[in-house]
Amino acid sequence: MDQDKVMSLLRRFGKAFNKGDIEGILECVTKDFQWRLAEGPNAPDGKVVSGKDEVRAALKERDIATKEIRFSETSIHFTEENVFGCFRATGEMSDGTVVDQRGIDIYTFRDGKIAVKDSYWKRIDKKL
């Protein structure tokens, strides 16, 4: 996929994420899109949601769990097969926990849309 087209798609996707625009997010992904979340029960991938209905449900769960979250300090890096997107997430969870973490998403594209978003986040433990 052309780098300019990828950048345009990722900008739309990122803006939709920051706005909490679930339908805007889903417009950017394939019907069988797979989101591999950073945490979850499915070893070794965390939580894996597949298809637009499961992704929609996961995004609604995220909206309940978060009071406010913002993604910034983004940078995009291209390889032959994937695109890496680095970011900083800041905000607050619904329980009052403050979020300030860095992460990276590994994207795979098909037919002009995002087919896979494999997410990794720094784990912050202030007890260490």
For the record, the count of structural domains works out to 1
Radius of gyration: 14 Å
Percent helix, as a range, is: 25-40%
- What is the number of helical segments per DSSP (H or I, 4+ residues)? 3
Q: Which descriptor suits the 3D outline?
A: globular
CATH topology: Nuclear Transport Factor 2, Chain: A
Low-confidence stretches: none
Spatial sequence of strands, sheet with the most strands:
2-1-6-5-4-3
Give the SSE string.
Answer: HHEEHEEEE
The largest pleated sheet is described as: 6 strands, mixed
Question: Would you kindly provide a written description of the structure presented here, covering whatever features stand out?
Answer:
With 128 residues, the chain is of the alpha+beta class. The chain has one domain (3-121): Nuclear Transport Factor 2, Chain: A (Roll), CATH 3.10.450. Helices cover 30% and strands 51% of the residues. It has helices at residues 3-19, 22-27, 51-65; strands spanning 29-42, 46-50, 66-78, 83-93, 98-110, 113-121. The chain has a 6-stranded mixed sheet with strand order 2-1-6-5-4-3. The model has no long low-confidence stretch (mean pLDDT 91).
